[in-house]
Amino acid sequence: MQAQPKPITGAPQWLEKSVKVASQQLKAAADAYQPGFNPRSTNTDGSTRLADYKDWITGFFPGSLWYGYELTGEDKLAKDAKRFTLGLDSLRYLTHTHDLGFMIYCSYGNAYRITKDKGYLPVLEQGAVNLSARFSPVTGVIRSWDFGEWKYPVIIDNMMNLEYLYWAAQQFRQPKYTNIASTHALTTIKNHFRADNSSYHVVDYDPKTGAVLQKGTHQGLTNESAWARGQAWGLYGYTMCYQNTKNQKFLAQAEKIAAYIMNHPNTPADKVPVWDYDVHNVKSERAPRDASAAAVIASALIELSTQVKDGKKYLDYAEDILKSLSGDQYLAKPGENNFFILKHSVGAFLFNSEIDTPLAYADYYYLEALKRYAEIKHYYKK
Ligand code: GLY
Question: By C-alpha distance, which of 38, 50, 54 is closest to 90?
């Protein structure tokens, strides 16, 4: 077991308050819900939407508990984090989705990073075997989904699973995982991005030849639009690819996506994007904000700020987002919001699913961003 984290100290009032609210919400949620059946969002009747271990969001709640523990040093959060992580033991048997990175690395990955308890390793080891088995050398990418009409669909979200493979390559001495991750990232640069550096959501490949069959969207406004969370996933994914490889192509891609996001004329003043950048009337009722995209962008930009010489512009932008999310408009009051931390995210607008609701991954990336920010600003006592 590693040394117990010390709570942050000397942080500005908005950050201290956010951590306090997060701690209260996380502890209440851990008491209210059961391991293996984790909080996902809020149903239209106001009840909590829970999801079993097979759902792509399943790792976020245990991961949030681990970040809560790191931000506060509270024993209860460590115990709850362990309980909800171990509730996902069956993840080692899943092979049907690329989301294994989200599901396993956010839960078991954080658990092992923080505790160094080897008991967490078997799930991490098998998960990497299962994820890497979804790679094809013909297409040069990891297959995302096994459902739908596509032949070999790959979504921009899949960039988020590569960090897990880079880590697993080192941990389990499997250099092929590094090759798989980097090949996926390079193929995605070639096929997923438009001239303005926004990305398609879904690219479908011919599994026999590797040719691109179709480019479009699943959760965005139109096939040619820039779905906000998709841009966030791309930014985060390439930032972590660069951190792991120092390949300049990955840094260049991350900075191009950052510029697209930071200069976008449809970004509202508080820097929390509407669910798709191509929703032009940002005041219309079809334009709810997506706090989850903002949280992912903030966490990625903080990381990116540490990897370039002129990183201040990224850190400043991330700080603006975090201050917005930590304000009354987005931050829940303790005991409300079904114990989620943030309000106002969007799952899939055109499917009429999870519109203007809390989302488990908004909370996860918000806490990760707060933790990264607190580290950079030295609010942790050594
Ligand atoms: N990865 C699924 C989503 O972002 O909605």
Answer: 54
